[in-house]
Amino acid sequence: MHIRSRRLELMLFLSVLVLYAIVTVLADRPDMVWDEGRYRWYATSLTHGTYATEEKPDIINGPGYPLVLAPLIGLGAPLIVLRGLNAVFMALAAWFSFRSVLPYAGRKWALGIALVTALHPSVLRVAPRLMTEPLTLACVAGFAWAFTAALRSEKWSWRLLLASALAFGWLVLTRVFFGNVLMAAVVILAGLLIFQRHRERLLRALMVLLLAFGLCVPWLVYTHSRTGEWLCWSTNGGELLYWATSTKPGENGHWFSEEESQTMPELVASGHRDFYRANYYLPVLEREAALKARAMQNIRENPAGVLWNWSCNQSRLLFGFPRSHLAVEWGSWLLLGINGVLVAWVGFVGWQAWSQKAQVPAELSVLAVLTTVYLGGSGLLPGLPRYTVVIWPWVGLVAASLVQMKRAR
Question: 45-76 b/e with 16+ CB inside 10 Å = b?
C-alpha cells in the first residue's frame, strides 16, 4: 500500500507539472496582463537592492513571490520561464494536498482533493501568468501537510514545526492578508489554552504561528521604515475599503482600478474620478487616510447599502458575480456549478459532523479556525474566486477527514 501511494504521488506530481508546462506554453503572450507587471517590477527592484521606490512608494504586495522571481530575472530569464515556474508550484500544491489528506481519508479521497487543487478553473485561468495563486496554493497545502504531521506526532518534532512555520511564513509574505489571519489565530488559540483538552497540541500550533510571525518580522520592519506604522502588511487597505463601502447607484462593492475610475463613464458620473484626482495621488499615508475616512463616511451614511455590498461580496468570492456596472462572465456560470457543488458538499459534511458532535482532531480544528478567519476577513473586502480557491487544501482536508470519520464509526 505504501509503495502504491508513492507511485501515485509521483504520477500526480509529474502529470500536474507537465500539464501546467503545456498550458503555459499554449497561453504565452508577449504582453503582461492583470498583476504581472507589478510583480515583475517588484522582483526587478529587488535585483537592484530596493523594493518600493520614491517613484512607486506603494507597498501593495509582500515580497514572497518577487523574491522567488528575482534570481531568475537577475539571470536574464525570459518571461515564459518566469511564468513556467508556476507549473512547479502547482505540482507541489497537488502533491502536498495528496500527502496531507492521505493519513486521514486514504488514497481515493487524497487523490480527489489533490485533483480539485490542481484543476480548479480559477487556478487554470491564472497559473500561466505571473500571479501568486500557484505559490500561495503550494504554501497552503505544504502547511497543511507539515502542520498536521507535527500535531499528530507523539513527541515534539522541531523539523516538522519549522517546516510548518516556513510554509505559513512564506504564505504571509506572498499573500499579506494572511498576516491578519496569523495574528487573529494567535489570539484565538491563546484563549483556547484555558481548556485542558488538546492544550499540548495547541501549544505546538502556537509555536508554529509564532515562528511564522518571526519570519515576517523583517518585512514588518521594512514597512515600518517606509510608513512609520507598526504591523503594516501593505498600503492598499484604504483603497479596498473605499470600493467595498461605495453604495453609489449601480454599485455593489466591486473593486475598480485607478484607470477604470478615471475612464469608465458610470464611475466618472458617480464622482469617483473627482475623488481620485483629489486624493489618490497624495503621499501614500495621506491617501490611505483619505480613502479610509471616505469608507467610514460611507458606512455611516448607508449601513444597509454596505451590508448589501457585503452579501454581494460573498457571492463574488465563490462565483465572481455580481460586479458593479458589468455583465456576468461565462466563467461565472461555470464556477456556479463547480463551486456550488463543493460548497454544498462541505456544508453538508460540516452539518453532519456538528449534529453528531464528531470529535475532530486538534490539528484539523486549528485549520478550520484559520479557514474561518480567512473567509470572514476576506468577505469584508472586494473579493474574487481566486481569493477563495487558495484555501481549498485546508477545506478539502477537513471535509474529507470528516467523511472518513463518519464511515469509521
Answer: bbeeeebbeeeeebbebbbbbbbbbbebbeee
Cα–Cα distance for residue pair 365/147, rounded to 1 Å: 12
Residue 55 grid coordinates: 517613484
Q: What is the per-residue pLDDT across 240-261, written as a single tens digit (0 to 9) for each?
A: 999 999 999 999 999 998 889 9
At 301, phi and psi to the nearest 5?
-80, -30
- Name beta bridge partners: 297: none
> What residue segments make up the domains of the chain, in order of their start?
2-236+319-408
d(CA 108, CA 308): 41
What pLDDT score does 2 carry?
A: 66
E strand residue ranges, 46-200: none
Cβ proximity of 90 and 16 under 8 Å: yes
Say how far apart CA 108 and CA 409 lie, in whole Å. 19
Buried b (16+ CB within 10 A) or exposed e, 260-272: ebeebebbeebeb
Which residue type sits at 115?
L
Backbone angles phi, psi at 286, to 5 degrees: -65, -40
- Answer yes or no: are the C-beta atoms of 407 and 353 closer than 8 Å: no
| Contact call for residues 400 and 102 (beta carbons, < 8 A) | no
Q: In the numeric block, which cell numbers belong to residue 121?
A: 478553473
Q: Indicate the helix (H) or strand (E) that contains 152.
A: helix 133-152
What pTM was estimated for this model as a whole?
A: 0.94
Percent of the residues in the chain that have a pLDDT greater than 70, as a whole number = 98
Residue 196, pLDDT score? 66
Cell triple for residue 368?
478550520
